[in-house]
Amino acid sequence: MRIVQVDAFTARAFAGNPAAVCLLPAPAPADWMQSVAAEMNLAETAFLVRHGDAFALRWFTPAAEVPLCGHATLASAHVLWQDGHLAPSEEARFDTLSGRLTARRAGDWIEMDFPAEPPVADPEPPGLRDALGVSAVWAGHSPRLDYRLVEVVDEAAVRRTAPDFRALARAARGVIVTARASSEEADFVSRFFAPALGVDEDPVTGSAHCVLAPFWAGRLGKHELTGYQASARGGVVRVRVAGERVILAGQAVTVMQGELCES
Q1: 44 is a catalytic site residue
Q2: Please, are residues 189 and 178 in contact by the beta-carbon 8 Å criterion?
């Protein structure tokens, strides 16, 4: 079986967030997919099976299956068009644990239709502040994704965040640290940490932007925004809030192709 590694939310190789994409001839056991994801050792590995006019899609970190992943969905759509499984003008449709997701090409960008996951105000759980090493201006929780959102005073505080990952894994499933951007190139910046899922820091996180988009739309009073995820690799995510949905847009680059020998 062919397996492709794609850098998502970037226009150049070796930036953005890498994901592996594997198109399967038939559904595979979850433990086998988990083993492949652990072997790839990327933030996510995506597995697709064609089902009528759509593709069943599941995402695995090296440690667990996740209900929603933006960058591996972007990578999956990129591979479907690149390898000729879909015509360039066709919409990519995915049936997932988060329902039907779609993607379409928009010039050099790929736009994905995802559920909005607005956070609700919620005090930081015990141990989170100490694990992150930052003070919150605002703290909230996205219930379905079980992500914690922590707004800090400025972009510099986001970039300085240096969590105690072992303590953070005990305190929360996934944590978004965010602030208003200090330059005009983006509206907000963020970082995402999920050591409980086997990913200390995710380079660029689509699902986190399902939380960030409605949060910053409310803060800044506009529905189209640009987010920059300030990890070491870095990546740009354009977002548009449309009611209970969020349109996430990014670019993608194939960096590696191979064959999966054990099945």
Answers
A1: yes
A2: yes
